[in-house]
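User: My advisor, Dr. K., asked me to get a structural model of this assembly before our group meeting. I'm new to this, so sorry if the format is off. These are the inputs:
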Amino acid sequence: MSCPGPEILMRAVDGDDAEVVDHLNECGPCRERTARARMMASLLREAAFEEGVERVRPARRRVPWFPLAAAVFLIGFCLVLIVGDRSAPPVPAEERRPSATQDEPADPIIQKLGSSSFREQGEAAQQLEEMGTEALSALERAAKSENEQIREWADKIRKRIAETDRRIQELIAQLARENPEDRRKAGDALVTYGRRAVPALETAAKSENPRLRGAAANLLALLRAARGGGGADTESAPIISLVWLARHQGPGGSWSAEDPRCYDRLKSQGKCGAAPGANDCDIGVTGLALLAFLGAGYSNLSKDTYDGVCFGEVVKEGTQFLIRQQGGDGRIGGKSMRDHFQATCALLEAFGLTGSKLFEEPAKKALRFTLNMQNRDGGWGDSDESGWAVYVLFSADTDGLAVPRSAWDGIRGWCERSANPKDLKATALALLARILSDRNRGPKDSEAAERLLHDLPEPHDIRAEYWLHASTALYQYDGPSGDAWSTWSRSLKNAVLKTQRSDRMQCGYGSWESAGEGNVSGTALNTLSLETYYRYANVLGAPHK
Amino acid sequence: MIATRPVDLDPKLAAELVRAARRLGHNPTDAEDLAQECMLAYARGGFQGRSSLRTWLYRILWNRHVDLLRSRHASAPRPETISGPESDDDVRRLVREALGRLPDLQRAVLVLRYFEGLPYAEVAEILDRPEGTLHADCFRALEALYDVLVGKHGLEKVKEWL
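Assistant: The format is fine. Below is the predicted structure of the whole assembly, which you can bring to the meeting.
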């Protein structure tokens, strides 16, 4: 009888091919080969287990846990109301309090260590190790168990927990080091420990050392997002914010800055408690809200529907509103240049995304007006206005529309002259203007980036517009893989995800409020910040179009 | 303008991609870049739904990994270790070192099967191999790993690790 090939022997290694067993009983070389492969497979499983690798299962259909849980809760609640008073005698307080051993969530898992199934033992050991210090008291008891198998496992797991804790503490100490490369390595290593690192990181996040405190807070946010805290696992932050924006778009296609209302197309309409922003800037916030959709890739042609709203319709109505506001000279809106720039950006990006003639002429007219309005000093008024002009030039350049060299030189010079080390928004805009204009970076840019990194986003201090300018500038500075962008991006994600309203039962779900900017503006700006890394490519070294 | 679809990937999937890239032997920066390329491919609307999203992303990761290896100079040193939590003297480090010495395909088979925990059918789809061949690849990879480990540390030592 000929020997089976490696394909069949592999099935024997996995233990699910009974046919080959007879052959292995008779054939020494095949038996030996299979035993070697089995030994290596066990070793790899052990190494993967030691690294705390969560087994990845094939994709499953998502179970609608929330409605199920709500239904179970309601049924249970009703049963308690119906049956509870009649059948259940009052339980003395002493009995209601569970005993120390019953209360331990680790106890039922410890019993599985005594199972005859290796798989069950391994899974139980992994769960206990992941519980870390929470499982220690139960493990101490298990170490005195009469069952030898449980005793051995308990000892082994306690040693592993102690070793892991020691290692985590070492890595946390490295987070405070001066060398950013050391800090990055320690952060990467800590993330691989998953929830085991959370208690130690929570302590570190309260440290007096600002470097350690910041790094620990960022890592906690990453770990919580990866574990699914706050809904970040099931729905992305940009999508739910776009749904919020869509629900607050007015009937004419615009968004109201000073009087935001919920115009839910499925539910009731009306005031919803959204915070108002500045007066008379509906055109600007409409431009910003549209940019958030366009930045995520939704155009007037998109058919994607979320929560009953078609995003393509939202963009279509919004862009039509802006085009209706455009005067014969190309200006969009009548008062503020900032409104005009934000609206122009939206039309330019809509044109870039679709190439549609619907947007071509309005976008070109708005660009021509912008260029004509550039002052002799190279700017367009104050830093708020000139800052948004930088985005207009960038969008136009990305679309391949002609932007004269003089316009770039002018705004670059103006930003440099008006940059003030204390004004970080202006610093970010100057950095952005220099890089976009020159397509390279120099020592001044490194200084500016360093200054921005001294004021990382913090959840308690939302400054959405500054965050957007700094995100765009730092991504152009060394994104997507440089240290500055990585550091900024971690803090940004932490701050933005933490502050996004997460109560599904409230109308504000998915939105942000930024001091003085109102909900519509704050939500659009934060969404744009989150979209930074895929909105534009890094332009360093690339020629102007 | 890059995006034509939103990037709304489960952050857990993105983390898995980075981890898998590191286990394929890339430094953290390259691993991040590779994972980001996968996400950008998704953002550009490349996913057609012909396989599971995870399989599709891992397949892109593997293809980019192969492209990257080809684009480097033949004389460039191969990575010798597979990234993971740092530890000083335990089995994990030695196993990672040994994996680093295997040919790319064998290393990928073992990483995807044992460290990422993917079923054979999915690994076969990712690496574009028939499933039967993949079983054979896996067996040969385990044998090669045995040769490396036992060759370097001796059979008795390796047995002690189990």
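One thing worth pointing out at the meeting: Chain B touches chain A through 59 residues (CB under 8 Å).

User: Perfect, thanks a lot.
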